[in-house]
Amino acid sequence: SGQSLGYGFVNYVDPKDAEKAINTLNGLRLQTKTIKVSYARPSSASIRDANLYVSGLPKTMTQKELEQLFSQYGRIITSRILVDQVTGVSRGVGFIRFDKRIEAEEAIKGLNGQKPPGATEPITVKFANNPSQKTNQAILSQLYQSPNRRYPAPLAQQAQRFSRFPPMTIDGMTSLAGINIPGHAGTGWCIFVYNLAPDADESILWQMFGPFGAVTNVKVIRDFNTNKCKGFGFVTMTNYDEAAMAIASLNGYRLGDRVLQVSFKTNKTHK
Fold first, then answer.
1. Cα–Cα distance measured from residue 16 to residue 231, given in angstroms and rounded to the nearest whole number
2. Which of 17, 147, 182, 262 is the most exposed place for a label (fewest CB within 10 A)?
3. Percent of the chain with pLDDT over 70
4. What is the secondary structure of the chain as a DSSP string?
């Protein structure tokens, strides 16, 4: 498509210049995103699968406090806390990516089941495994079954009454067990967006999903005769964690007078 994947590389002649660039630009707010600048590393077994999923966090905990809690176990590459798109309040769920897998393992040993400062309940810390692994189904379930969902009603059931292609049901209505982790298309993760207005266009999808991470493609499905949106579209994102966060935050999002259904594309959705 020619669209940016959301990341790039810069080679410096002088290592001091590279260090200065990182110190100056890392964390810079650029349009709607905060960019991450760090040294590129060759892939190796020691750095793979070092991403943690954390749930049960106090709603008052900030991203900085989350990093302070986990930094005692190693160097943190990235961290994120999921927030409600409307209220901006934390969902109590976050991700921490360490420099090395052994650091992530130590963080699990030290923090899983513990109560961080300000917490009344223990937190859960586990690996955010590769989406192809069955264990990630439980992670997805926890992500969707947040007690703070703004629209706990079975919206997907309502959608099925007038859609031949309902999205994957949410909030525990249908178990994810037995379903292949959907959406992976080789070039990224395909997200199904349902209940769009007839006048919806691609720019709306770019604006909604862009803040969550690298979006490679968006498409609104249109009626052949009227060229109006048929009520649904697709978004492709390169990173699984970012796609999962976008789904968790935007499913149930009210756009105009419509409540959106957002899920990974499944074989049951429109081709």
1. 52
2. 147
3. 73
4. -----S------SSHHHHHHHHHHHTT-EETTEE----------TTTTT-EEEEES--TT--HHHHHHHHGGGS-EEEEEEEE-TTT--EEEEEEEEESSHHHHHHHHHHHTT---TT-SS--EEEE---TTSTHHHHHHHHHHT-TT-S--S-HHHHHHTT-SSPPPP-TTSS--TTSPP--B-SSSEEEEEE---TT--HHHHHHHHGGGS-EEEEEEEE-TTT--EEEEEEEEES-HHHHHHHHHHHTT-EETTEE-EEEE--TTS--
Report the alpha-carbon distance of residue 224 to residue 222 in Å, rounded.
6
Q: Which of 73-87, 102-116, 158-172 has the lowest mean pLDDT?
A: 158-172
Whether residue 249 contacts residue 83, with contact meaning beta carbons closer than 8 Å, is answered with: yes
CATH code given to domain 189-264: 3.30.70.330
The string of pLDDT tens digits covering residues 206-255 is: 888 887 888 888 899 999 889 899 999 999 988 888 888 888 888 888 88
Q: What's the pTM? A: 0.45
Q: What does the alpha-carbon distance between residue 93 and residue 53 come to, in Å, rounded to a whole number?
A: 8
CA distance 202 to 171: 28
* Domain covering 46-131 in this structure, CATH number: 3.30.70.330
Structure tokens at 76: 């943190």
Matching residue, tokens 């349902």: 194
Same fold across 46-131 and 189-264: yes
Which sequence spans correspond to the domains of the chain? 9-37, 46-131, 189-264
* Residues 149, 85: Cα–Cα separation, whole Å: 11
Tokens of 32: 């709607």
Check if the beta carbon of residue 192 is closer than 8 Å to that of residue 232: yes
